[in-house]
Amino acid sequence: MAKDDHINQQILRELTLDGRVSNLELAERIGLSPSACLRRVQELERDGVITGYRAVLDRQALGVGFVTYIGVGLSEHSKAAQEGFERAMQAAPEVVECHNITGTIEYLLRVECADLPSYKKFHTDVLGVTPHVNALTTYVVMGSPKDLRN
Predict the structure, then answer these.
(1) CA 150, CA 136: separation in Å to the nearest integer?
(2) Complete domains list, the chain, with CATH
């Protein structure tokens, strides 16, 4: 079975929207028998297309009210500088995404904090002391009209 056929795409779309949907309900939504649907889902899991299931959290309920994306430039472009920066971001609970990117900066971070004062503390106490951080550009998220993670 092709990983990217139309039925598999429908299965993946439905599971992305609701990973806890029962096999019976999923089969009904897709228009397959429950056994055929289960076989396809299991094959997608075996093939590594579906790598896991997760809970989608309400960030507001967890006290996260301030979300930013931060562009980070490093003053040194060595492997050691990058590895050091990545270790520091792994250790920072506020950093929920860290992407090494191309362009005029090296990294793009998604940072989630309770509020502006807690963001300032992260900015000062984490980014402000991380070696080789040379440039920071912060983009405050004011709304997310499309966010497939939710």
Answers:
(1) 27
(2) 6-46 (1.10.10.10), 66-140 (3.30.70.920)
Task: Give the per-residue pLDDT at 147.
Answer: 86
Q: What is the pLDDT of residues 18-27, one digit of tens each?
A: 999 999 999 9
Start-end of H helices in the chain: 6-17, 23-30, 34-46, 79-91, 116-125
User: Please, is 111 exposed, middle or buried when counting C-beta atoms within 10 Å of its C-beta (0-12, 13-18, 19+)?
Assistant: buried
pTM of the model: 0.80
How many other β-carbons are positioned within 10 Å of the β-carbon of residue 72?
23
Which tens digit of pLDDT belongs to each residue from 43-82?
Answer: 999 999 999 998 888 888 999 999 999 999 999 999 999 9
CA distance 97 to 5: 30
pLDDT of residue 4: 60
CA distance 8 to 31: 12
